[in-house]
Amino acid sequence: MAFDEQGAIDSFWAARARGEYFPAEWFDRLTLDEAYRIQLGLIARRVAGGERQIGWKVGLTAPAIQQQFGFHEPVFGCLLESTPSGHVFRRDHLIKPGFEPELCLRVTEPLSGKVSMETARRAVDVMFPALEIIETRGDFVAQIAVAIADNAQQKTFVLGNPMRLGTLGLDVVTATVQINGQTVATGSGDAVLGNPLNSVIWLAGKLAEFGRGIMAGDLIMSGSFTRQFPIAPGDRVYVEFAGVGNVQTAMLA
Questions:
Q1: Residue 146: domain span
Q2: 117-176 per-position pLDDT tens digit
């Protein structure tokens, strides 16, 4: 049977209204291409309802995360909201939350299709130390396609102060992750597809498959330097990106 894209979007939209983000009727039924088309359709409805898309996320870029979730290619999702560094989340605001330490890149010119490293670097003017805040709204590992349709775990992202990209080599930037004052992980930019700018290159090519592209002004969460960590009530998260800056968040106990 041919894929009914509009019918699938309607079905996911109705399930979302019921608070069901991983509708069981779609388990083991979707290709990745179909899942992305549902995602984009749902985002279009959210934007029509008053939300604003401000960019894209690229996920599953680091070997540590690919191993964690058993999926070995990047994925994309849409960014709809951000919060400043230091934001404290209410414990009832998030569904089984977690975080990933990332660099967020701002793009100043449209990009679509095949893009060179030189073009990607020229297009990025500033970067932010950032945390992607994810929600585990269903079984990501068992139902990766449904997870992509549900915007690839995206909830929000936390931004530190911007810094000009300049000539800094993003592949050698190191991140030190602390939870409640204890260092739990370190990672470097080369874990993100070899260089976080490669996430921009991958995204431009992938979006072109759906007739889309990166727009001037878009923010791109480029992918985690480490594995994903859960956030529990009372946790304080602090990440230092050497030579770039820091970002922090917390959840009320």
A1: 52-251
A2: 999 999 999 999 999 999 999 998 899 999 999 999 999 999 999 999 999 999 999 999
Dig out the tokens for 202 from the structure.
Answer: 């991958």
For residue 84, what is the domain's CATH number?
A: 3.90.850.10
Q: What band does 187 get if pLDDT is binned at 50, 70 and 90?
A: very high
Contact 149, 26 (CB under 8 A): yes
- Does the residue 189 lie in any domain? yes
The number of folded domains in the chain is 1
> Would you say residue 138 lies in a domain?
yes
Three-state SS letters, the chain: CCCCHHHHHHHHHHHHHCCCCCCHHHCCCCCHHHHHHHHHHHHHHHHHCCCCCCEEEEECCCHHHHHHHCCCCCEEEEECCEEECCCEECCCCCCCEEEEEEEEEEECCCECCCCCHHHHHHHEEEEEEEEEEEECCCCCCCCHHHHHHCCCCEEEEEECCCEECCCCCHHHCEEEEEECCEEEEEEEHHHCCCCCHHHHHHHHHHHHCCCCCECCCCEEEEEECCCCEECCCCCEEEEEECCCEEEEEEECC
User: pTM for the full model?
Assistant: 0.95
